[in-house]
Amino acid sequence: MAPSSPTAPAHSRPHEAPGLGARSVHQKPGPDTLLATRDLVIDIPGRAPGAPLELTVDPGQCWGILGPNGAGKSTLLQTLAGLRTARAGTIEVRGQAITRLPRAELARRIGLVFQTHHDGFPATVLETALIGRHPYLRPWDIETSEDYARARAALAEMDLSDLEHRMVDTLSGGERQRLAIATVLTQDPSLLLLDEPTSQLDLHHQVAVLNRVQGIVAQAHRAAVLVLHDVNLAARYCDHLLLLFPDGQACWGPTATMLVPSALERLYNQRLSVGEVDGLPVFLPRNE
Amino acid sequence: MTRAFLLAAAVLLPASLLAVLIALAFGSVAIAPGDLLAVMLGEGSRLHDTLVLELRLPRALAAFAAGGLLGLAGALMQVLLRNPLADPYVLGLSGGASVGALLAMLAGLSMFSVSLAAFAGALLSTVIVFGLAHGTGSWTPTRLLLTGVVVAAGWGAMISFLLAVSPTAELPGMLYWLMGDVSHARNPYPAWILLVLVVFLALPLGRTLNVLARGPMQAAALGVAVRPVEWSIYVAAALITATAVMQVGAVGFVGLIVPHMLRLVFGNDQRVILPASALGGGILLTLADTLARTMIAPEQLPVGVITAMLGVPVFLFLLYRSR
Amino acid sequence: MDFKAFGRNPAMFLAMFLCTAPALAGPVSVTDDDGHEVRLEQPAERIVSLAPHITEVLFAVGAGDKLVGATQHSDFPPEAEMLPRVGGYSRIDMERVVQLDPDLVVAWRSGNSQSQIEHLRELGFHVYVSEPRSFDGVAASMRRMAQLAGTETQGDEAVRSFEEAIDTLRQDYAERDPVRLFYQVWEQPLMTVNDDHLISEAIRLCGGVNVFGHLDRLVPRMDREAVIEADPEVIIGGGMGEDRPDWVLAWTQWEDMTAVQRDNLFFIPPSLLQRHTPRIAEGTRLMCEELERARLRRAD
After folding, report:
1. CB-CB: which of B203, B207, B213 is closest to A137?
2. Chain mean pLDDT for chain A
3. Range(s) within chain C of domains with CATH label 3.40.50.1980
4. Where are the domains positioned within chain A?
5. Cβ atoms of residues A281 and A238 within 8 Å
6. Which of B138, B217, B263, B264 is the mutation pick for testing A, counting most A CBs within 10 A?
7. b/e map A93-130, b = 16+ CB within 10 Å
8. Could you name the CATH architecture of C175-299?
9. What angle do CA C263, C267, C273 make, to 5 degrees?
10. Is pLDDT at B1 greater than 70 in this prediction?
C-alpha cells in the first residue's frame, strides 16, 4: 500500500508497520485524557519486545483492540489496568503515573472485565455484582441500600434480575459473562476495559452489551477499550482501533482509517471479502 | 450480609456458651446440676469448686480457644489458597509442629519447651511450604497445596523415625501429643487474646477476602493490594496455627470441617465465616474434649481421635460431593 | 490435721484412732527421686498410686489399706484389683484423683505426664515422685513410702527380707561361670535391654552376661541377624502376660544357635522381672535357676 494512501492509519509509525506505511501522527494527551501511554512495551515472557505504544484514550472514545490469538491483547489490557508491569514505558491515568496511584483509587477509575472468571467459593449472582462496590467502601463499611440498588440496576441492565439469588456456578457461560459485565457496571469506572465481552453471548446480548457500552461512553468523562474478535462489531461500535500483529508490531488510529483490507488480511493471515451493509464495511473470510 | 451475620451470632454465641456449660457439667466425676449452679454462685463445696473451677473451666477454655484458632486458621487458608480443602493439617504445619514437639520430648525438655518447640516447628514448616511454593515467582494455589501435601508427608516420615528411635517410656506421651490432647493446656489466656485479636483484625478485612476469593487478578482489578493481603493472611494463619498446636498438639480436621459446614449454612461471606469459624471451631473442640474426657472414663482419650472420627467421614463426604 | 476429711466420715476417724495409733505420730518428711522434699503433717491416710508397680510396693510395705485409688492394670496383689481407678498411667483422670481427696499421691516419673504431676502439686496435693532404677532403689523406695504411710514397722520387715533374698542370690550365683544370654523383651518389634536396665542387674547377680549390654539405648530395637550372630548360650523371653509367649520357642527354627541346640529357651513372667517391686527378688531367683540349668547342660 502506498504511503500516501488516504486510508492509511493515522497514528502509527512507519518502521513499526511497514506493510501499512502509515504516517506518524501522535496525538498529545490533553487535560481530559483518561489514559495515555508513553513508549509502552508490554511484557510477554519469552517474547521479543513489540512496538512501543503511544495511545491516548480521551473521554467519549471507544477503542477496539484487534489481533490474532496470542498477539498480547489481554496482556495489554491488563497492563493498561495496572495489573501487570510493562517491560518499558509509562502509563498515565489522568496525568498521574499509574504506578503511583493507590489500588483502590485506580479501581474507581479503571474497571476490567476478564475473559475467564474464577469463582473459588460458591456465591450468589447479587453478591458477585456487589463486589463491584468494593473500591468505594472503607474496611469497616457494610454495603448500604444504595450499593445494593446499584448492583440490582446493573443486573437489570444485563437481563439478570431474575437470577439474583442463583449460585454463580450454576450459570451458563453467557450468563456468567453478563454477570461479569454487570459487576463492572456496578463498579462504575471512568474507563472500561473489556476483554472479549461478547465472545460467549448470543446475538441479541452481543448487541445489548455493546449498545450499553456505547451509552456509557456517551456520558461525560467515560471511555472504553474492548478486545474483540469480530471485526464487523468493532467496525460498528468502536471509533478507534488498535491492531496488534503477531510479530509484535502495532498500528492504531480512527476506525475509518484502520479498516484497510490488506492490513486486516495480514493481521489475521486470512484472505477477506469486503462488502458493505447499512453504509458500513463488512469483512468475511474468503474460502479458497 | 447483615442478616447472615446476625443469624450466625444468634446461633453460635448461645451454642458456644452451651458447649462450655456442657464441658463444665460433665466429667468422670458426676456433679448434679444443682451443685454446678452452687459452684457458679460461689457456694459450692471445696471438691466441686476444685473440679469445676480448677480442672474443667481452664481446660474448657483452652479447648475452646485452640479450636477457635484452628477453625479460623482453616478459614483463612482456604481463602488464601482458594481451595476448600486447605487446612493447617493438610498443609504440613501440624506436621512441622509435631516434629518440633517430639524432638523436645526426646531431649527431655519441660512441657513449656515442648510447646515452644511445636510453635517453632509450625513456623518453620510454614516458611518451607510457602517459600518452596513461591519458588521462582508463581505462587499458585495448586502449587502451594501440592507443596504442603508433600512437605506434610515428609514430616510424617520424620515423625515415624522419631517414634522408632524414642525410648519406650516416652512413647505414650508422644502418641498422645500427636493425636492431640488438651490435658496439658493449662493457661488458655494467651490463646484467647490472640483469638480475639485476629477475629477483630480479620473482620474489616472480610470484604477484601471475599474479593480475593475471586482470584488475585480480579481482586487487584477491584482495588485489593493482593500481595500485602496474601502475606498478612499467611503470617496470621501460621501464627494462630502454631499457637493452637502449642496448646493442644496436632489436632486435625477442625480447620477443615468447621468452615465447610458453616459455609453450607451461612453462605460464603468472609465477614460472617471468619468469626463463625472461630466460634464453630471452639464449640467443636470443647465438645470433642468433653467426649474425650468422659467416653471411657476414667481412661482419657486424646481429643484428636474424636475430631478425626468426626472429621474423616465429613471430609470424604465433601470430597465426594465436590467435582 | 485435716478435720474436713474426718468430718465427712466420723466412723473412719474412730477406726483410725483405734487401729492405727502410729498414724497420730508427728510430721514426716522424705526426699523423693526428683529431689523434692515431701513433707506431711502426719503420715498419709488416703494414698493414690499412679502406677501398677507403685501400688504393689505400697501393699508390700503394709500401706495397702491406705490406698484409695490406683491406675489401670494395678493387678498385684489381688486386693489391688478392687481399688477405684484413676485412668491409665500415661494420662491420669485428674477429676477422679481430686474426688478421692488423697493426702498423698505417689507418681512415676518416667510413666506419668510431667505436666499432670505439676498440675497436681498446683492443686495443693502432696506428690511423691518415684523412679527406682536398681535393687537399691527399690529398697530405698520401699523405705520412704513406708515412712510416708507411717508403716515403718512392716516396711522395714519387707525391706529386710527383700535385701536378704537378693544377698543370698548374689552369694550363691554372682561368681559362677559367666553365661552369655539374650533377654527378649518383645517380639514385634524385637526388643532387648542394655546394661543400665534393672533386668541386667538381675542378670549380673546370677552370673550372666547380657550380650547386648553395651548398646546405648535402654530398650534397643534389634535385628534378628544380630542375635543369631551373637549366638547367646541362653535366650530368656519376657512379653506381657504370665504365660510363655509362642515366640520364645520360635527360635528353634535357627538350629545352629547354641541356645537352641542346648534347649536353653526360657521364660520368666515379666511381672517378676520388669516391675520395680520387691517381687523382683523372686524373678531374679528364677533367672539364677535357669542360668544354673544352662551351666549343667554344658557337660552334655
Report:
1. B207
2. 86
3. 3-161, 175-299
4. 35-285
5. no
6. B217
7. bbeeebeebebbebbbbbbbbbbebebbbebbbbbbbb
8. 3-Layer(aba) Sandwich (3.40)
9. 140
10. no
Which of B210, B212, B218 would you mutate first to test chain A, the one with the most A CBs within 10 A? Answer: B218
ipTM here? 0.85
A122/B211 touch (CB, cutoff 8 Å), yes or no: no
* Alpha-carbon distance B97 to nearest alpha carbon in chain A (angstroms): 29
Residues from chain C contacting residue B32 (CB–CB below 8 Å): none
Cβ–Cβ under 8 Å, residues A194 and A181:
yes
Task: Give dist(CA B62, CA B187) in Å, integer.
Answer: 7
Q: 3-state SS of chain B?
A: CHHHHHHHHHHHHHHHHHHHHHHHHCCCCCCCHHHHHHHHCCCCCHHHHHHHHHHHHHHHHHHHHHHHHHHHHHHHHHHHHCCCCCCCCCCCHHHHHHHHHHHHHHCCCCHHHHHHHHHHHHHHHHHHHHHHHHCCCCCCHHHHHHHHHHHHHHHHHHHHHHHHHCCHHHHHHHHHHHHCCCCCCCCCHHHHHHHHHHHHHHHHHHHHHHHHCCCHHHHHHCCCCHHHHHHHHHHHHHHHHHHHHHHHCCCCCHHHHHHHHHHHHHCCCHHHHHHHHHHHHHHHHHHHHHHHHHCCCCCCCCHHHHHHHHHHHHHHHHHHHCC
Interface partners of chain A (CB pairs < 8 Å, 3 or more) are B
User: If we measure between CA atoms, which residue out of A115, C124, A114 comes closest to residue B219?
Assistant: A114
Dihedral angle, C-alpha C184, C190, C194, C198, nearest 10 °: -50
Q: What's residue A11's pLDDT?
A: 47
Q: Which amino acid does the sequence have at B71? A: G
Interchain proximity B221–A114, CB inside 8 Å: yes
Grid cell of A186 as nine digits: 456496578
* Nearest-neighbour CA in chain B from C25: distance (Å): 27
Domain A35-285 has CATH 2.60.40.10: no
**Residue in chain B lying closest to A133 (CA):** B222
Average pLDDT of adjacent 10-residue blocks, chain C of 300 residues = 43 46 71 92 95 94 95 91 91 91 93 88 94 92 94 94 95 93 89 91 94 90 89 90 84 91 92 91 94 87
Of B214, B318, B323, which to mutate for an interface test with A (greatest number of A Cβ within 10 Å)? Answer: B214
Q: pLDDT, tens digit, for every residue of A110-123?
A: 999 999 888 778 88
CATH for C3-161? 3.40.50.1980
- The total number of structural domains that make up chain B: 1
Distance CA C125, CA C118 (A): 10
- Residue B84's domain is classified under what CATH number? 1.10.3470.10
Of B222, B266, B274, the residue nearest B1 (C-alpha): B266
